[in-house]
Amino acid sequence: MRFRNLVAALAASVLLAPAAMAQTESIDFTLTNNTEHVLTALFISLPSTDEWEEDIFGADVLGSGESMDISIDDGLPECVYDIRADFSDGDSVQVAEVNFCELDGEELTINE
Questions:
Q1: Which residue, among 84, 18, 9, 10, has the nearest Cα to 45 in the 3D structure?
Q2: Are 29 and 106 in contact (CB under 8 A)?
Q3: In 83-109, which positions are buried (b, 16+ CB within 10 angstroms) versus exposed (e)?
Q4: pTM of the shown model
Q5: Least confident of 5-9, 36-40, 45-49, 82-86
Q6: H or E element, residue 6
Q7: Which residues on neighbouring strands pair with residue 39, listed in sequence order?
Q8: pLDDT class for 16, splitting at 50, 70, 90?
Q9: Do 29 and 108 meet the contact criterion of CB atoms below 8 Å apart?
């Protein structure tokens, strides 16, 4: 898989936590696409479910080499979520148990 390093980059960019903490404030971070492909969708979900929430990007995309400030301000009940990133070439990557509370204010870089 050519995005195998993406999993390592995502995991290295955030701290993983075994337990979730309550979260009611917004979570803000900068997402940087350091791949050769357009990032077309970004999803999060609770690890306890098999369903993804709606696409965080909406109609937006994140081109190669671009960065985007992301704010999740919907009163997330937990800190730990799974992430799925979809790319223009049809590939997608999933990273389990990302601690969004630790991600707040940080940069998340996607590398090939």
A1: 84
A2: yes
A3: bbbbbeeeeebebebbbbbbbbeeebb
A4: 0.73
A5: 5-9
A6: helix 4-13
A7: 62, 87
A8: very low
A9: yes
Q: How far is CA 71 from the centre of its chain?
A: 11
Q: State the residue for tokens 């479910």.
A: 49
Say whether pLDDT at 86 is over 90: yes
Distances, alpha carbon 7 to alpha carbons 15, 107, 111, in Å: 13, 15, 9
Token pair 């730990």: residue: 80
| Share above pLDDT 70 across residues of the chain, in percent, rounded to a whole number | 76
Strand 27-34 versus strand 107-111 pairing type: parallel
The answer to whether 44 touches 56, Cβ cutoff 8 Å, is: yes
Could you read off the pLDDT of 3-13 as tens digits, one per residue? 444 444 454 44
74: tokens are: 């919907």
Which two three-digit tokens encode residue 111? 């590398």
- Helices then strands, counting H and E runs in the chain, come out as 2, 6
